Description:
The protein is α+β, with helices and mostly antiparallel strands. It is about 65% helix and about 20% strand. It has helices spanning about 1-25, 30-35, 40-50, 70-80, 115-120, 140-165, 170-200, 215, 220-270, and strands at about 55-65, 85-95, 100-110, 125-135, 200-210. Strand 2 (about 85-95) and strand 3 form a beta hairpin. Helix 6 packs antiparallel against helix 7 (about 170-200) and helix 7 (about 170-200) packs antiparallel against helix 9 (about 220-270). It is elongated and about 80 Å long. About 15% of the residues are buried.
Amino acid sequence: MFKKTFITLSMIATLALTACGSTNTSMGMSDSSISSVPATGDMMVENKVSIDRSIIKTSSLTIRVKNVEKSITQAQDLATQFDGRVDDSSQYKNPGSEDSLSANLTIRVPSANLEKALEAFKDLGDVESSSISATDVTMQKVDLDARIAALNTSIERFKQLISSATNTSDLIAAETALAERQAELDSLTAQLKYLSEQVEMSVIYLALLPNDSFSAIKPIGFLAGIEKGFVALLNAAANLTSILGYFIPWIITILVLVAIFKLISRIRRNR
């Protein structure tokens, strides 16, 4: 009995000494070892610096001109001069005047040329209003890149599963999952492409108003608010139409792909 107790106490003492030795070794880490690990704050700063910021710039410009139709042509030429393009152009008659026309143009120019382009457009006539806004979409772009990379990896794995499938049920399940991921990948890729284009090509909403006797009397107060609201509504409608027109072909393509894969799955189930 005494011998067993002695052996047990010896084992406990040995474990205790071992634990102390490990603790001392851990506590004995040199300051140089600790200092060699970069601080979390420094790592975050380095990561932030390494990320290229993605900024969407949008500007609005309202100008009174002597000849609206001529100014439209000049605006189109300026857009080309600055490596840009006119996405949308519309003309409308001013209320209370049969011959007085106004126009709205949606112009895109490379972001690097935005400031110079705005100065050139201002030379078309008398500037009534001018504004520019910037939206940081860096995190949205980073998130899309990460999700696309993950989907590509998942798609490759499902392709391997399909090639090695040994029975029909496994094959159908893998093909269905693959079709879903491929559709999601197409959607995310379209979103990334659209976002990248918004960053690379800044938008200028240009409103051209006639500088004639009818419009020389500028409305004030309530009437001024109605005019600005009307111009803003037209600009928003033009922008929304452009966005919807861009996404419709992608949505149709994705729906067709999903329908094809579902049809293939049903045919294989019936075999």
